Recover the amino acids of this structure.
């Protein structure tokens, strides 16, 4: 199957499985797993932060970050469609008593700084205390540039807000801009990265930040049930991913650009921005066509997400040949669909 649903679907390759099989292990709750320790110091070094902490998922890593920055009755400013607000079960509110203040994304994935400013609440007991600004990069496959991040950081500093990045795909943003990822990460007080997306590890996220922040986050990780034991088995895949799978994200971006270009030639489809910035393509079509497209493609060995616009994601288990094959199948679907 050629699976365009997400970059989470990748399976560990032989090299990664080898690293997992031979990982040195210990009990990480005692901080005695040498492989977890090595992943954490590697991620800290690479990100330009003091310390790092390994988590089973990005959801837990983001939540621990929010719980560490904010207290009950505090508020975080976040994108209306941001993962930390919309796709994490409302965890910050459910478990932390932290109120979200969502703001609509602009078309380029940024949050308008004037809209943010207007939502920052004055110190008045009627209001929740605005404590944190949380960004995401990439957002729906779009790169948030450092010029914007710098201005957002200024705004956060000016108002005494902490500044968190959900950097689930920060490496895609970095590779697309041909910069090392610490050049993005260093603007933030904390950054959560995913090893299980384009980097290809089976699971795992890392939260990076200053020492005292990570000490506090470690406590929250335990509270959230994320204190794992011989977690080096999974962390070794993360090390392998950081060593081998960052630069190759450029291939996924080239494949996504190629897919976007191929689909753009189909009259029945419209493609967001007529192009792909990183590893995602968004294609819109008539709903009636979308419903028939999914089973047709599945019969041809191609898995697509429902949704209109439809999100197609490239990753290390999709080759250039797979892209060419998928474009051909899209073309033949719309030819058939038009002739009936
Ligand atoms: C995947 C993802 C996360 C974390 O998700 P998990 O599935 O919990 O690892 C966080 N933010 C964004 C933007 C993501 O895409």
């Amino acid at each position: 199957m050629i699976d365009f649903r997400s970059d989470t679907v990748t399976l560990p390759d032989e090299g990664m499985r080898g690293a997992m099989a031979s990982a040195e292990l210990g009990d990480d709750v005692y901080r005695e797993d040498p492989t977890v320790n090595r992943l954490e110091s590697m991620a800290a070094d690479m990100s330009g932060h003091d310390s790092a902490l390994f988590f089973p998922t990005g959801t837990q890593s983001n939540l621990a970050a929010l719980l560490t920055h904010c207290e009950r009755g505090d508020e975080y400013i976040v994108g209306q469609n941001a993962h930390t607000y919309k796709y994490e079960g409302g965890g910050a509110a459910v478990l932390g008593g932290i109120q979200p203040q969502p703001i609509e994304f602009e078309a380029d994935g940024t949050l308008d700084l004037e809209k943010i400013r207007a939502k920052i609440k004055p110190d008045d007991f009627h209001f929740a205390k605005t404590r944190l600004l949380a960004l995401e990069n990439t957002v729906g496959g779009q790169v948030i540039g450092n010029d914007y991040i710098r201005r957002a950081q200024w705004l956060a500093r000016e108002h005494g807000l902490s500044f968190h990045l959900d950097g689930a795909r920060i490496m895609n943003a970095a590779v697309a801009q041909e910069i090392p990822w610490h050049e993005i990460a260093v603007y933030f007080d904390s950054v959560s990265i995913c090893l299980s997306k384009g980097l290809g590890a089976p699971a795992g996220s890392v939260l990076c930040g200053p020492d005292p922040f990570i000490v506090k986050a470690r406590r929250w990780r335990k509270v959230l049930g994320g204190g794992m034991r011989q977690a080096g088995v999974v962390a070794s895949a993360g090390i392998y991913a950081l060593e081998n799978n960052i630069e190759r994200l450029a291939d996924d971006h080239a494949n996504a650009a190629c897919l976007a270009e191929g689909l753009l030639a189909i009259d029945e489809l419209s493609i967001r921005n007529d192009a792909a910035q990183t590893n995602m393509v968004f294609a819109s079509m008539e709903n009636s066509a979308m419903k028939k497209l999914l089973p047709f493609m599945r019969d041809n060995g191609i898995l697509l997400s429902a949704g209109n616009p439809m999100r197609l994601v490239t990753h290390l288990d999709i080759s250039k040949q797979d892209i060419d094959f998928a474009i051909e199948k899209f073309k033949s679907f719309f030819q058939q669909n038009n002739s009936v």
Observations:
- The CA atoms of residues 19 and 219 lie 29 Å apart.
- The pocket of pyridoxal-5'-phosphate is lined by residues 57-59, 62, 83, 136, 166, 168, 194, 196-197, 205 (CB under 6 Å).
- The chain is about 45% helix and 15% strand.
